[in-house]
Write the structure tokens for this entry.
Amino acid sequence: QVQLVESGGGLGQPGGSLRLSCAASVFIFSSYVMSWYRQAPGKGRELVARISSTGRDINYADSVKGRFTISRDNAKNTVYLQMNSLKPEDTAVYYCNAKGKLLRSGAYEYDFWGQGIQATVSS
């Protein structure tokens, strides 16, 4: 059973920083596309950032572009989300996601989720 465990959430100040980590209990971590999603109160789930298996292809939501940085350390089976210049609108539960083995249908054979971690931005 693959497990994704998020850590590093908590309370951040507007304009400040938080760093989220997601540790994966899978030995083929290096083959997975890793993403961070978030869900704010009263809103749907939003894709925040995505990083390819190699770390060479990265995408961000417009709302976080220029402020957040996703990275991965395949040797540690860990993906990170560095959140800088925090805004109150960044307050949400953040979820780590791992997708692997892209199929011809466009779906992924493997799709795993962490339990989520709260990040609150407030002065």
